[in-house]
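Table S7 (text form). Paired inputs.
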Amino acid sequence: MSDIQAVQWFPGHMAKTRRKITEDLKLVELIAELVDARIPQSSSNPVLRNIIKSKPKIVLLNKSDMADPVQTNRWISRYREEGTVAIALDSKTGKGMSAFFQAAREVLKEQIAAWERKGMRGRPIRIMVLGIPNVGKSSFINRMLAGSGAGKAEVRDKPGVTRENRWFTVGKGFELLDTPGVLWPKFEDPIVGEHLAFTGAVRDEILDMEGLACRLLELLSTLYPQAIPYRYKVDLMQESNLPGYEILERIGRKRGMLISGGEVDTERAAITVLDEYRSGKLGRMTLEQAISCDKS
């Protein structure tokens, strides 16, 4: 996807954030990396992985309420086989929060035991919260802060809201370090950029929305062939491998999105498709599907 791939994702604040994250790693015992459960691979920043290195980490598959639950479980199995704890999370409702607290203590049990031997029982666990823009870090922190009176992290449905590192003290003995969302200089794989654009991690203002919606429709027609006909009441079942543009036109016509001369307003239809996918109205879908690691 050349229009996304060509964009250089290192504005000044992102370069500064990367340096600050590197400096602050020594202040924390654990990394909580939020990824989008619909695109776990594409939403994990390879630059951050290189910075984190051997620091203990928990992966939080956020927005799991919009992801295919079968695929989410397979991703959790895959992470487990790689030696990483992963938890399905919905930061808006709080589902998965208690599992995160338990997992954090389990991952750091040797460190906690060492503190207790030194008379430091009750020492708070310091956690750095990392993730790309719009993955839900602020919603996650606000859910943890609920009822603590410790303030709120800013939440907006736009990438790149948080611009500085901030500490929050939450209940149950945790201190969280919030960091701005960071993308990386260049998407070597254009599919990664495309998937990030589908989910809203890349600003829409720089994208070809019609082309993006067409590619999304083609992908969904392959992975979840019933979803588009069900949502938009268009008949695609008798035809296979329809180009995305033709599917988009059928959706626009079915929804009455017409302009002068009876032509379909494909730009309006594209915005509708992307908005409805991002809000979960098309169903629970995972665009990056994992092969099950279960041996059973």
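Next pair, protein 2 of 2.
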Amino acid sequence: MPTLVLLALVGFAAQLVDGSLGMAYGVTSTTLLLAIGTNPAAASATVHLAEIGTTLASGASHWRFGNVDWKVVARVGFPGAVGAFLGATFLSWLSTEAAGPIMSVVLLALGIYILSRFTFRGVSTKHLGKPLRRRFLTPLGLVAGFVDATGGGGWGPVGTPALLSSGRMEPRKVVGSIDTSEFLVAVAASLGFLVGLGAAGIDFAMAGAILVGGVLAAPIAAYIVRIVPPRLLGSAVGGLIVFTNVRTLLRSDYIEASSSVLVTAYILIAIIWAAAIAYSVRAWRAETREQQLIDAVHAEHAEHALGSAPNGDPEPEQDQLVGDRT
């Protein structure tokens, strides 16, 4: 029972992150399942089964808040489902000894990408409003779906930054569309694992606990995405994923690092992690100040234009001139 309660809390926290950042639900949940000794394929299968419910709840919540572009959902989601099914059957075919390190390496790479991507680049909207082409979304969906199933997560870490970097969608719509399309990926991956592992290979109790926590967090996350800076959240979550998977790799049978190496690695990662968050905070504050200045200039120009309009109120100088003439 304590384990199931812990998994429910993890599902809640992971969905808060995923629903507001557009990534890291599967990566975070799978990382924890691996840390407690779950079979890699079973861990990914359990998380994807839970994601069927959490992504459905998350998608409905994002739709309610107007965060979903349904064209993008269809164009990236269906190829993603194909990639996820192929990835699930591939992971089921691998032995546990081979799959464990492979999954940890994939998760570590995704964590490094999330950490560096949001710390140093933030979010771009330079081409906001321009349509996303199918020839870009289809291969993106295939690759992201395959990585998601084989790594126990990856749909968001691959898909969300790719759409954000295009600068053609509002960040909140990127997050909402990726989260909604992930429902198709979760269903396809679950079918692939059922084919490869059978129902006996999936822990339904763990999946249920993660599902309950995620469903409870979904509407909160859909609201948070409108108010929490993605840059800060990305740096925090990326560092957590890196820390956890480095620990898993160093303690694996392939490496078996000594305690001194473990402590040194933990301290180094903690320093980098803290520096990344501090850098993100400073960058976010600078961006906020710059945007406030831009908004103030636009507001001043709007007031000036209104005052100079033929049907608008005369400006103070004009009032004084009229008074002098009379």
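Confidence is low (pLDDT under 50) at residues 314-326.
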